[in-house]
Amino acid sequence: MESFYKTHKYLIEHLYSPVRRGLMDEINWNDRLIGIKGSRGVGKTTFLLNIAREYFGPDNKECLYINLNHFYFTERTLIDFASEFRAKGGRVLLLDQVFKYPDWSKELRYCYDHFTDLKIIFTGSTVMRLKEENPDLSGKVASYHLRGFSFREFLNLMSGNTFPMYTFEEVMANHQEIAKRICSVVKPMAYFQDYLHHGFYPFFLEKRNFSENLLKTMNMMLEVDVLYIKQIEQTYLPKLRKLLYLLATAAPSTPNVSQLSKDIETSRATVMNYIKYLADARLMNILYPVGEAFPKKPSKVYMYSSNLIYPIRPEEVNQQGVRETFFFNQLMKDNQLNEATRNAHFLVNETYNFRIEESIKVKNNPDFYYAIDKTEIGEGNMIPLWLFGFLY
């Protein structure tokens, strides 16, 4: 763990300074089995290492980080390893990439039942089912979701501030006062376009080409998080990649499932399953009418993050699509979003019809709320779009 910490020192100290305390504060550390799910690239490994650094320090032998994709585990079981670790005084195991280890859920359950003095914190893909479809861990594991940077976290990191998060209700009730408070310290619009382009995935801090790295990450999501975990044959990868491209270049849009099934030469049912897999992998977001869900046809599909829009076809980026994608992505953690009625873009929490607009120069319908892009401070039912990036 110490050598890994030294290698990734820059990322650890930047990603998990007070900028990213949100999930750390949400977790109930009294639980003995904790699962951290997140899409590829959001910093799950760094999160584990920060737990070790914050609660134990790099030289404390009571806590150990291990990657279960290591060749060591081709001949040793997790159960034997955990037993030996306990015998040497170990108290906390941090397990990375558990889905690469055969029978991971059964062995975690064994450890939970038999090693009651051992706490296990593990990371996995968003595609994994820790509770709903996993009888070994049902009722035993406490599951949390690690997201990419919110705009608030990005702004705090880049500007050196420590702005707090706000609930959706607080923003709706007091957006003008909150925006004035923030804008008296920093100009959020000076950072907003950078966030939309590359601020969601923490690896923008690395000294590599961000777009190339993101494209590589997207392909890994397909090859590992979808094909490997869902046990789909590798020969179907071209169909998945083509489907993602077709959806991405049209998003946000209502998917024409019949046409998509012709384009990728598969059945309508398979197209719907693939769309669900892409959503599970956090490549797409799916919008439904109130009361509907998979396997029904979505009202619209969006890219999961605005960052994912730019590498696909950078010369033809739909800026309105970027705005709507940002709004969906930032609200979905703690709010319900559905297809809206009466020409709005989103229905939030079955109460608020929202339109997402470029500027404040729109005809104001008092029955709507507006998330406005090119404004720092709103008024009444017109709220700055960037402020919805302060919800987590």
Widest β-sheet, arrangement of strands: 2-3-4-1-5
Distance between the termini: 29 Å
Computed Rg? 22 Å
Number of helices: 15
Structural class given helices, strands, pairing?
alpha/beta
Return residue spans where pLDDT drops below 50 for at least 5 consecutive residues.
1-16
What is the string of helix and strand elements?
A: HHHEHEHEHEEHHHHHHHEEHHEEEEE
Helix content: 40-55%
What share of the residues does DSSP label as strand, in percent? Answer: 5-15%
**Could you give the count of β-strands?**
12
Q: Provide the residue-averaged pLDDT.
A: 91
How can the largest sheet be summarized?
A: 5 strands, parallel
Shape: globular
Helix-strand layout with pairing:
Layout: H1 2-7, H2 9-15, H3 22-26, E1 33-37, H4 44-55, E2 63-67, H5 78-87, E3 92-96, H6 104-114, E4 119-124, E5 142-145, H7 151-159, H8 168-183, H9 189-198, H10 210-230, H11 237-250, H12 257-263, H13 268-280, E6 284-287, E7 300-303, H14 309-312, H15 319-331, E8 337-338, E9 346-348, E10 352-357, E11 369-372, E12 382-384
Helix pairs in contact: 2-4, 5-6, 12-13
Structure description:
With 392 residues, this protein is of the alpha/beta class. The chain has 15 helices and twelve strands. It has a five-stranded parallel β-sheet with strand order 2-3-4-1-5, covered by helices on one side. Strands 8-9-10-11-12 form a five-stranded mixed β-sheet. The chain has a two-stranded antiparallel sheet with strand order 6-7. A hairpin with a 7-residue loop joins β8 and β9. α5 packs parallel to α6. The longest helix has 21 residues. The N terminus is likely disordered.
